[in-house]
Amino acid sequence: SAVISQKPSRDICQRGTSLTIQCQVDSQVTMMFWYRQQPGQSLTLIATANQGSEATYESGFVIDKFPISRPNLTFSTLTVSNMSPEDSSIYLCSVGTYPSTSGGRNEQYFGPGTRLTVT
Amino acid sequence: DAKTTQPTSMDCAEGRAANLPCNHSTISGNEYVYWYRQIHSQGPQYIIHGLKNNETNEMASLIITEDRKSSTLILPHATLRDTAVYYCIVRVFKTSGSRLTFGEGTQLTVNP
């Protein structure tokens, strides 16, 4: 399994400012993802963080609004830029470890999340 | 990835079996069925997965119909701590990794 920590765990921010969320994993992982969970909603994938290259964004999410870095196999950051109240959500980091053996066991683990409130 | 359909909510009495259904009628032959759950204020947690055979682990059992168009997650003896949103997800296994696409899930409430 993988143990994931996120910083900060929660924050209250003013509109127009930016917040960078950190995700640290206790072991090297193949895949890192960032999800958003708006109040009362399911999880929505923002992007896949690629080590050494630009992140791959899902439809509806752009790099200017959600810049992502992944400098190595254990760490990633997500920045929420020029925030508005609509950005108030829980942001979750997720990692995937994919053993080479078959069986479909794509292990995917989630961090505790960062609860962001924009006022 | 194939879409899934789950009931919005279900109730279960503590100590009884909780049976959570999922329809995935457009599933492809190389797609697996995964179940995750999310307890309030926590990140989702993997429960179990399967391709076409029934599976059992320490948390739950997964029953997949012969035509693979639906499945049922069974929590044999539900406890209050099993109250959570349960997500049924269908996706292809890739050694290079593949992402999870979450639907709305089923809110399971276990009552004392």
Topology:
The complex is a heterodimer of chains A (119) and B (112).
Chain A: E1 4-7, E2 10-13, E3 19-25, E4 31-37, E5 43-49, E6 56-57, E7 68-72, E8 75-80, E9 89-97, E10 107-110, E11 114-118
Parallel strand pairs in A: 2-11
Antiparallel strand pairs in A: 1-3, 3-8, 4-5, 4-9, 5-6, 7-8, 9-10, 9-11
Chain B: E1 9-13, E2 18-23, E3 31-38, E4 45-50, E5 55-56, E6 61-64, E7 70-75, E8 84-92, E9 106-111
Parallel strand pairs in B: 1-9
Antiparallel strand pairs in B: 2-7, 3-4, 3-8, 5-6, 6-7, 8-9
Architecture overview:
The complex is a heterodimer of chains A (119) and B (112). Chain A contains no helices and eleven strands. Chain A has strands at residues 4-7, 10-13, 19-25, 31-37, 43-49, 56-57, 68-72, 75-80, 89-97, 107-110, 114-118. Helices cover 0% and strands 50% of the residues of chain A. Chain B has a five-stranded mixed beta sheet, with no helix packed on it. Chain B starts with 8 loop residues before the first strand and ends with a strand.
Summarize the structure.
Chain A has 119 residues and is mainly beta.
Gyration radius over CA of chain A: 14 Å
Count of discrete alpha- or pi-helical segments spanning 4 or more residues of chain B: 0
What's the rounded overall pLDDT mean of chain A?
Answer: 91
Q: Indicate the overall shape of chain A.
A: globular
Assembly level: heterodimer
**Strands of chain B, count:** 9
Strand content of chain B: over 45%
Strand order of the largest sheet of chain B: 1-9-8-3-4
Helix content of chain B: under 10%
Question: Fraction of residues of chain A in helices?
Answer: under 10%
Q: Unreliable segments of chain B (pLDDT under 50, ≥5 consecutive)? A: none
Distance between the termini of chain A: 37 Å
| Helix-strand topology string of chain B | EEEEEEEEE
Output the structural class of chain B: mainly beta
| Number of H- or I-type helical stretches of chain A | 0
- Tell me the β content of chain A: over 45%
Shape of chain B: globular
